[in-house]
Design goal:
Length: 288
């Protein structure tokens, strides 16, 4: 055990030092969300060679950004284990084990227990309802935004997770949205401390006002971009992001705001209902 090693972060945008991934060894599309349902219904062929190439591009982008990669062990019965964002959440006080909603994914907890047992374990465990990492956004010190579709994250799960933060004096903003959109990170992601990408047509003008009041500017994403996982990006800190190559308009808009964009191809994963934010769980970020 590497005692004393405490994974922690206080934002979505501090310089990323360490990240947790899971190789897509057993990845294939499963019917657990609206995007994957449409992909499967279309009869689109999967390309295993292309999938592995795209995952290698993601790892290369992280390595180029000097991020240390850690990996969990993939298991054949858990095809969506690659989306490491959902099964835990790193916080300012250590990692929290979340509660996954879909039966097809609940077994992912075991690899997380094994990984964190090497370090200082978990800070807390969620035990009420369901809450998934894709709905959790630690925007900056003192502000947590929680998505709540009523399914992947429901009211009981959101309330318990929010309490972990409110008892530390944080502001918590809950955002309801339709189950169709899966997770909040399909609709909203932070690029740097003062810039976000969001689908305001879905999240509402009041949400944009909430962000603007906290000096966060919004680049608007369309419904079509959302369903292509184009809003799903990962901040690396220091005005750098990883964003899918196919997110051409949003990537151009980010670059126009002075953001350096690393853009691996990730459409094989996007067609399963996830992209770079979903596929990465930050373990350690520098404070902002």
């Amino acid at each position: 055990m590497l005692a004393g090693k405490r994974w922690k972060l206080d934002s979505e945008t501090g310089v990323l030092q360490d990240v947790l991934l899971c190789p897509p060894t057993h990845y294939h599309w499963i019917d657990t969300n609206a995007v994957a349902h449409a992909t499967l219904a279309s009869g689109a062929p999967a390309d295993a060679k292309r999938r592995l190439s795209q995952y290698h591009q993601l790892e290369c982008a992280l390595t180029t950004a000097n991020v240390t990669i850690h990996r969990t062990v993939p298991e054949p019965q858990l095809p969506y284990q690659v989306y490491t964002r959902d099964s835990s959440q790193t916080t300012p006080w250590g990692p929290i084990l979340t509660s996954l909603a879909m039966p097809q994914r609940r077994g992912e907890y075991a690899s997380l227990l094994n990984f964190h047992a090497q370090y200082d374990g978990f800070y807390k465990y969620t035990t009420a309802g369901t809450v998934e990492g894709g709905d959790i956004h630690i925007v900056h010190p003192g502000l947590l935004i929680l998505g709540n579709s009523g399914v992947r994250t429901n009211q009981a799960g959101a309330a318990q997770f929010a309490e972990f933060f409110t008892e530390q004096g944080w502001e918590v903003k809950q955002i309801p949205f339709a189950e169709h959109f899966l997770h909040l990170d399909v609709l909203f992601c932070m690029a740097n401390p003062r810039l976000a990408v969001a689908c305001i047509d879905v999240l509402g003008e009041a949400f944009e006002t909430f962000l603007n009041d906290r000096q966060i500017k919004v680049i608007h994403a369309s419904y079509a971009e959302v369903m292509a996982m184009s809003c799903n990006l990962l901040s690396l800190g220091n005005d750098r992001v990883i964003s899918p190559h196919h997110s051409t308009r949003l990537n151009a808009a980010l670059r126009a705001q002075g953001i350096t964009v690393l853009d691996p191809e990730l459409d094989e994963f996007a067609r399963g209902g996830g992209s770079v934010h979903c596929m990465t769980m930050p373990l350690l970020r520098d404070p902002i």
